[in-house]
Amino acid sequence: MNVKVRRIERKEVEIPDLNRRIADAQKDSGKPIAVICKMVGFSRSYWYQMINGKEEAIAEETLRKIEEVLGVDFGVSFND
């Protein structure tokens, strides 16, 4: 049997004020934080860490789920 070897490359892009923009989008949506967290799949504790700038990075997949739940597009692109 052949075995594949996979290289996972990490790419990051810095988005100014993304945490504030996420918090504003939540407020504008009128959706409770608990509901958003359940739909996205993370804890309220993580939410508060994220919007208060305690998390240095979030996974793109998580950001896309947040965008979907809030009905917004933060315009984040990796220019691939």
Please name the defining characteristics of this protein.
80 residues; mainly alpha; 434 Repressor (Amino-terminal Domain); 49% helix; globular
Q: In brief, what are we looking at here?
A:
By secondary structure, the protein is mainly alpha-helical. Helix content is 49%, strand content 0%.
* Distinct helical segment count: 4
CATH architecture of the domain at 18-70: Orthogonal Bundle
Q: Percentage of helical residues?
A: 40-55%
What is the arithmetic mean of pLDDT? 93
Q: Can you tell me the CATH topology of the domain at 18-70?
A: 434 Repressor (Amino-terminal Domain)
Number of strands: 0
Oligomer: single chain
CATH class of the domain at 18-70: Mainly Alpha
Strand content: under 5%
- Structural class from helices and strands? mainly alpha
The CATH H-level homologous superfamily of the domain at 18-70: lambda repressor-like DNA-binding domains
Order of helices and strands: HHHH
**Mind telling me the C-alpha Rg?**
15 Å
Shape: globular
Terminal residue distance: 33 Å
Low-confidence regions: none
Major β-sheet profile = none
Topology:
Elements: H1 18-29, H2 33-40, H3 44-51, H4 60-70
Structure description:
The protein is mainly alpha-helical and 80 residues long. It has a domain at 18-70: 434 Repressor (Amino-terminal Domain) (Orthogonal Bundle). It contains 4 helices and no strands. The protein has helices spanning 18-29, 33-40, 44-51, 60-70. It is globular. The model has no long low-confidence stretch (mean pLDDT 93).
